[in-house]
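Task: complex structure prediction.
Instruction: return structure tokens for all chains below.
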Amino acid sequence: MLHLDVLEAQSVYILREAYKLLGKLGMLWSIGKDSTVMLWLAKKAFFGHCPFPLIHVDTGYKIPEMIAYRDKLAAELGLDLIVHSNSAALAAGMGPEAGRLACCRALKTDALQQVVKKYSFDGLLVGVRRDEEGSRSKERVFSERNAADEWDYAHQAPEFWSQFKTDFPRGHHIRVHPLLHWNEIDIWRYIAREEIPIIGLYFSRDGERYRSLGCTPCTGRVRSEAATLDEIIAELESTGVSERAGRAQDQEDPHAMQKLRKAGYM
Amino acid sequence: MESAQDLLKVVFAGHVDHGKSSVIGRLLYDTRSLPQGAVDKVKRIARETGKAFEFAYLLDALEEEQKQGITIDSTRLQFRTKKRGYVIIDAPGHKEFLKNMVSGAADAESAFLVIDAARGVEEQSTRHACMLSLLGIRQICVLVNKMDLIDYDEARFLAIKADMDAFFASLGLTACDTVPLSALRGENILRPSPRLPWHAGKTLVQALDSLSPAGSAENAVLRLPVQDVYKFDERRIIAGRIESGRLRAGDGIVIHPGGKRTRVASLESWPPRGRKDEASAGESVGITLDDEFFNQRGEVISHSGAPPLITGRFQASIFWLGKNPLRPRQAYRLKIATQSAQAVIDEILRVIDSSSLAAGERTEEVRPNEVAKVVITTKQPVVIDLFSECRAMGRFVLLDGRDVAGGGIVTADFGAEARESGFAHGGLKVRCELFEEYYYSLEEHEIRKRRPVTPLYTVGDAVPLSGGSFSYPEFFDVIALRDQAAVKIREGRVSAVLPLAEYAYAGLPLVNGRGFALRVSSSAEWRACLRDYSLISSVGDEAAFSSRWLLFEKYRRIPVAAADRVI
Ligand SMILES: Nc1nc2c(ncn2[C@@H]2O[C@H](COP(=O)(O)OP(=O)(O)O)[C@@H](O)[C@H]2O)c(=O)[nH]1
Ligand SMILES: [Mg+2]
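Output:
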């Protein structure tokens, strides 16, 4: 089997296990390349259908083009889309000025927790990859979160031979990571191979492009001339710059992501 | 394109502190496989915490891991040599994190066992080797790291090699290479080292590049465990991953354990332009069938020529990672491919200390990190293969409570005769649990039962009329409603085994297949009982039927017993 086929088959298997074995499922869709690939894989797994709602946690600070693209694609594909914001925090004036980690916590982590509670999801499909940053590389495919949404990374249950954790106490939920075994470049090669429609922000304009999408104040563009899929793939084959180099919250503390993720961040 | 091929998965195992993370960090660094940000970040952390730069920090990303200088959980990274791409798995070496080591190593094709040249073989070195072999990893290389600490001495290197060779031999394995190196000084990683002039063998990268990819399961017999059945539109699609073999549209198939036969009508896919009519091992597929049976998760599809085993009792080698010891007669959940069944460890044949391979005397429990040979009974029959025949259908996990607490591989099946208890005559077979022993367990304060291995009794055989928890009359009839059959017992012997349709009530006491008395004492009651049985259509009905017609206490009682001295 070709490498991309192996990755795809494993993701499809994971999605089907989640659908069969967990109760109420939702899929986080950030409009970015990874979660868009995850949506595509769901349609593969379920033969053109997506049998659970998509969830977009809108911080209110997202790059405006992302919102426009989200609404357009959702209408085109007829997606069942839940958009949720931590409106109380926004009303109280929460923003990056309050500190980047505090802002991420309120507008992403807390907002996500609210939406999980509101719809009582048992499982959330999240498109994180092991190669994105250190603490994600320690993740399980089916990863338990307690009632406070915390990740107990020091005591994770064993997971092997495609036997995933699907039984957990009430109030806990499972984060399912169907893309954990993919790398950034795999994602792009797959997008090119499958001709998956993707938001234009990733392609170079005026010598710069986004490599990772987030909120306007905290997401920088990287210098790049890559304006097509082939050029992006060629760039990644030769670059030494890490994917999240443009993400400001990672730079606050060497273990910022681990701390955010322990508290329930995606 | 070279990178289109799948990557080779290699796990780095071995005792804590022998340098697994350092070897990998050095390998990635020397082959320039790390993004710029990663090295800078580690340098910055080292500076800020006033510690020396460690190659291991490139892998040990968690804050606790860096503070304590140990790997807690497995990490995976990809990297390439000139020859091909790899997924490198860094496993923790601490005894406490064996479950994380297994989680990381379980799907590797080969392993590197890292040994500290100055300390030699230690407890987890051999324990990991044993675990790797149980996980089915047959290709293991030994890396003797920290050669700088022993002045690159050949004699000490050879002594470690001899120790490991002996241990591998007792596992029935041979190390594919034994490579001396120093992660700290970067010796013998990419290039042969002038400090190791006596070493005519490979460098680390050469050892990696000479591993062979695991043989593909494509050409083996077909096994497709059913994962789910979808009816999102007009199609009724059976979804699953082909674990071995190949499947084509039009193939004749058998669905186990039921044994229903049909044909594959189509292979479905989305988007429709990707449509194929053949798929093989590793692919997640969806198929439609010529005949629409009731299908469900856990069934296994094969071709008709080479069926899997269907059994409720088998022998296995297991490794135990649970917090509590594994004990016989306790209920666990067993998961094998997409099947899930309640299981009991019938018997612990042998407990092995996985670090020394010494067999212990004790057979009453398997403690954490131990390996054992056991006999397992499942509540319903499961569809399996011997691990040596088909890996995916021959390996299982055991859950204790909510978590996976152990794993194992199927090493032997018990013949159908030995595991069925009941009656047989002519072509007729009647499954009965007449001689099951019930007892009240003082340890668990619960009623439990044990199923002794009894033969299939046939006409003329004497049956045990009394046991620790039952006592039957000399003359009675067994009514096996599930199998629609009856058995006549006369003077304590089987006198006839016949279909229920041919049975006539003779006024003798009636007992069901589990040894519960039927409240029937006249022909009219017998007819009413049969009519009630034929009307059962739900679990609720069955309970109502049972409480109306069955009487447990007539021939059975529940003695008190300590679990380890069952009757
Ligand atoms: N002298 C020497 N020390 C090494 C070498 N490789 C690793 N170490 C040290 O051994 C310690 C344990 O290394 P680490 O990679 O964390 O071991 P692990 O527990 O097997 O992953 C660290 O302090 C390393 O600096 C080596 O080749 N020579
Ligand atoms: Mg380590």
